[in-house]
């Protein structure tokens, strides 16, 4: 089956090359493969800014809210304050990787289980964050399930300041350096879900959370 798929692929590409009047030699293919494997970085704007401040500015411009705490142990208290101030439920789901935090001590009922459609609050970490766009990079896995950031109406994300990188290219470079190959799913979150498909009116929470609250740790 693999050989059949490859021959079909080659046949399609050969037809494209023929239509374009191009011939590709084995040397050309090797050059292309080498170029792709090198992951070259294109032109970027100047990095004359501090990543944490730029990330916060960009995230807030996308309608996320941001708070900073000094340690991971302070996160449950920060989550509790946010939920109480905004009259939101004080229970929900969290990543299994966050189960050891003292949620009960903060008066929260966080469960480390798969998210359901009726869960209103989801607390997650993130793999890293891009300062240039205020974007969270999420990797799927047993301890970092994607649904916790996608199904609940309120998504609270914990971001370690040491994991804020300048640009998207830096996020991919970090992933390659630490994991080699990406996991089954890589999700990028830039503020609450929104759409303007209907009458050009921006509607929040169209395909995911209405709210994204980011807690910086560092």
What share of residues is helical? 25-40%
The stretches of 5 or more residues where confidence is low (pLDDT under 50) are none
Form type: elongated
Rg: 21 Å
Q: What order do the strands of the largest sheet run in, or round the barrel if closed?
A: 1-12-7-4-2-3
Beta-strand content estimate: 15-25%
Determine the number of helices (DSSP H or I, runs of at least 4 residues). 6
Quickly describe the structure.
With 218 residues, the chain is α/β, with parallel strands linked by helices. Helices cover 32% and strands 22% of the residues.
Task: Write up this protein.
The protein is of the alpha/beta class and 218 residues long. Helix content is 32%, strand content 22%. The chain contains 6 helices and 12 strands. It has helices at residues 2-20, 26-37, 51-61, 75-85, 147-150, 168-179, and strands spanning 65-69, 91-94, 109-111, 121-124, 128-130, 135-139, 154-160, 164-165, 186-189, 194-195, 203-204, 211-217. A 6-stranded parallel beta sheet has the order 1-12-7-4-2-3, with helices on both faces. β5 (128-130) and β6 form a beta hairpin. It is elongated and about 65 Å long. The chain starts with a helix and ends with a strand.
């Amino acid at each position: 089956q693999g050989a059949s798929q490859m021959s079909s692929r080659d046949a399609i590409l050969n037809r494209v090359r023929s239509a374009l009047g191009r011939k590709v030699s084995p040397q050309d293919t090797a050059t292309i493969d080498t170029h792709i494997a090198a992951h070259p970085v294109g032109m970027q704007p100047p990095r004359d800014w501090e990543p944490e401040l730029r990330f916060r500015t960009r995230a807030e411009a996308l309608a996320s809210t941001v708070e900073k705490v000094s340690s991971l142990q302070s996160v449950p208290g920060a989550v509790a304050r946010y939920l109480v101030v905004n009259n939101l439920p004080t229970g929900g789901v969290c990543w299994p990787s966050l189960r050891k935090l003292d949620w009960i001590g903060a008066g929260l009922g966080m469960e480390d289980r798969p998210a359901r459609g009726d869960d209103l609050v989801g607390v997650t970490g993130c793999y890293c964050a891009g300062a240039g766009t205020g974007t969270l990079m999420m990797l799927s896995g047993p301890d970092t399930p994607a649904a916790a950031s996608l199904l609940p109406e309120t998504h609270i994300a914990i971001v370690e300041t040491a994991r804020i990188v300048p640009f998207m290219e830096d996020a991919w470079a970090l992933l390659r350096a630490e994991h080699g190959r990406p996991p089954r799913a890589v999700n990028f979150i830039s503020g609450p879900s929104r759409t303007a498909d209907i009458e050009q009116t921006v509607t929040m929470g169209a395909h995911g959370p209405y709210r994204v609250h980011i807690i910086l740790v560092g």
